[in-house]
Amino acid sequence: METIICADPLVLGKKAAKLGSELITKAIETTGKANIIVATGASQFEMLKTLTRENIDWTRVTAFHLDEYIGLPESHPASFRKYLKERFADLVLLKAFNYVNGEGDPFLECKRLGALIKDHPVDVAFVGIGENGHLAFNDPPADFDTEEPYIVVSLDDNCKRQQMGEGWFPTIDTVPEKAISMSIRQIMKSASVICSVPDLRKAEAVRRTLNEPVSPDIPASILRNHPKAWLFLDNASASLINP
Known about the structure:
- The chain is of the alpha/beta class.
- The protein has one domain: Rossmann fold.
- Helices cover 30% and strands 19% of the residues.
- It has seven helices and ten strands.
- The strands form two sheets. It has a seven-stranded parallel sheet with strand order 1-10-9-6-2-3-5, sandwiched between helices.
- α1 (9-31) packs across α2.
- The protein is globular.
């Protein structure tokens, strides 16, 4: 995994989006289409803003959603479907966007999405890292073994505190207990992975991801085993990395 340290979050987001744009365009030129994964959260704001302004033939792009809370309506401010429609999908003319719907039977939804993504090998995955080191909603200890593309997961307290701290929920008790998440193995099947991680509050997770052994206790550490992954950091999130 290549690590790129930028001066600040704005530069980080722009550089990550530019690389993503190049990879998407290359996939379209090679196969006539591109399949991507799009993440949410505060870490993706600038990247998505820049990506929507790139000169990409979006009509050839099919997008997949990483994760969503179970039982949360789309109208809720913390809904990832709401986030992605407002910050990405409604701003570009995509071929298709496959959202994760957490309002029905979550196991049927996992099966539906799993069948879809198996027919759409992912060219570029845009992801982030949680304060607890999670990748998507795969909190530690993450399941590194399941081949199921989407799974039902329980959110740990550290994850819930992050969601509350970012302002999505008023209290930790109002954060849903469970979510639907793309699995670790499915993320790792992506041809390329672009991971954007700004902010000082992510510094310890970044340090563990890069400096400790690859382990389900540090889910994002698995990205070090990916042959074509980039980790974009700002000075703050990179501040604890060992030389």
